[in-house]
């Protein structure tokens, strides 16, 4: 198998980071500017979280949603810029867990189009998490195999 020249490998990594980051910067910006809808949607999930982590009682749903949006914005922008990509992608993957559980609880829906839509969005976020984890574990390491 022919080796990929290092320059093309670097371009591929940068494009991958940009593609992942764009989702988080765009979504984080929107939620930061309009937190009320997401906060309302996350209400039931945040109630369960507060039972497990009483410290969260100090914050409103709106504040918690905005904190998550801030993580998406800042880590997404840093990922796009190539600043600490492993740490940024790990932070984004971690923040994606509560986001996904709060926004797309398809298992609570009865069969139908709403459940199918939520399940599809849940799986898209799972795919994003996979891409982020690939960046987290692979960044900084050579992607080319050593000759045998």
Instruction: Indicate the proportion of strand residues.
Output: under 5%
Q: Low-confidence spans: pLDDT under 50, at least 5 residues?
A: none
What oligomeric state do these chains adopt? Answer: single chain
Helical element count? 6
- Percent helix range: over 70%
Main sheet characteristics:
none
Output the helix-strand order.
HHHHHH
Radius of gyration: 18 Å
Structural overview:
The chain has helices spanning about 5-35, 35-40, 45-50, 60-80, 85-105, 115-140. By secondary structure, the chain is mainly α. Helix 1 packs antiparallel against helix 4 (about 60-80). The protein is globular.
Topology:
Blueprint: H1 6-33, H2 36-41, H3 43-52, H4 61-81, H5 85-103, H6 113-138
Helix pairs in contact: 1-4, 1-6, 4-5, 5-6
Give the structure's gist in a few sentences.
The chain is mostly helical. Helices cover 74% and strands 0% of the residues.
């Amino acid at each position: 198998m022919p080796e990929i020249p290092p320059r093309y490998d670097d371009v591929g990594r940068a494009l991958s980071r940009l593609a992942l980051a764009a989702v988080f910067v765009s979504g984080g910006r929107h939620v930061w500017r309009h937190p009320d809808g997401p906060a309302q949607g996350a209400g039931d999930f945040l109630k369960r979280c507060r039972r497990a982590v009483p410290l969260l009682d100090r914050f409103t749903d709106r504040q918690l949603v905005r904190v998550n949006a801030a993580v998406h914005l800042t880590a997404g922008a840093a990922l796009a810029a190539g600043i600490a990509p492993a740490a940024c992608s790990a932070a984004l993957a971690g923040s994606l867990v509560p986001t996904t559980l709060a926004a797309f609880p398809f298992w609570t829906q009865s069969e139908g189009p709403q459940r199918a839509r939520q399940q599809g969005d849940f799986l898209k976020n799972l795919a994003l998490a996979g891409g982020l984890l690939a960046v987290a574990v692979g960044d900084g390491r050579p992607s080319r195999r050593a000759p045998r």
